[in-house]
Amino acid sequence: MDDARPYIERAAPRHPALIDVEHVTADLFNIINVPTMIWIDERGRIVRPNDVQFGSDLFVAITGRPSEPFLAAVRAWVREGTGGLAPEEVRPYQVLPSREQQEGRAEFTLAWHLHRTGRRAAAERHFRRAGELAPGDWTIRRASLPIRGIDPMASEEFLALWQEGAPRYPAPELPGVATKAGV
Amino acid sequence: MASRTLTLFDDGRVVAVEAAVEGDSISISPDTLERALGWELKPQGLCRGDACFPVRDRAALLRAHGIDLGTFARLLDRPFAADAEAGVAVLGTPAADRASQIASMEAPDFTLPDLEGRLHSLRDQRGKKTLLIAWASW
Questions:
Q1: Nearest-CA distance from B47 to chain A in Å?
Q2: pTM here?
Q3: Which domains, and CATH codes, for chain B?
Q4: With bands split at pLDDT 50, 70 and 90, how would you rate the model's confidence at B65?
């Protein structure tokens, strides 16, 4: 919680900014990397599936994903109600969790608890096991690096992850993106 | 065999139960299973309320020192992680349950605290469009 505090206080958002220490949302929505965006309509229905998108251009040189098409699409959704998709349009893009993925999440929960209760060697074993079970999940593999005292941005361990490739979702194109790219 | 207090995560809930540990195997008594997890071993199988799962190999589930948690998890197709030496075990949510919830398009509800500890639920946002953003402070 204290790790997130400076970011939230500096941004001073008018929307709720919640702390998810136990990765509850990763488990519920099968989130495998951050930042992950999910559009939910007024009735509580998912109208755009998990997608890695960025709210700023801080990392655009690395990610190659400018924020503007995404922000424009969100604004249009809010103001004009465009861009949300029907269930049969969302469904083909959703990746559902496998048994191994869920086993990996259970191992992560175990490791995190062991770490917080001071049993570091046991925690390390289970963090590694979690990563083996869910190799394509950075909410497990990258998120465990700072907990284990490893730099999540500039360590050998992170570079090895980066070379494997950042996990992404097979998300549908943003409305308007294709046209703009063609200009 | 050693008797000890086990910290057991049951789909996000945490309970402390008495358990028997032998090597990597963790067992809890049938009474504890019912009290802490709501499951009962009956002649027709492993039951919660009216729902029963058949138990083909009863001896693998009910051992000398009680219900083997790993076998219990496998029977219910629940993810399971444990450290017997540390006395901690995690029973997660089956992949099939998570998958059907996600595929239903009904966003699953959750309740989490903000920096001040105030709790917020996704359902509080009903009637408004919600952009759910998962980010990290790395």
A1: 22
A2: 0.94
A3: 2-96 (3.10.20)
A4: very high
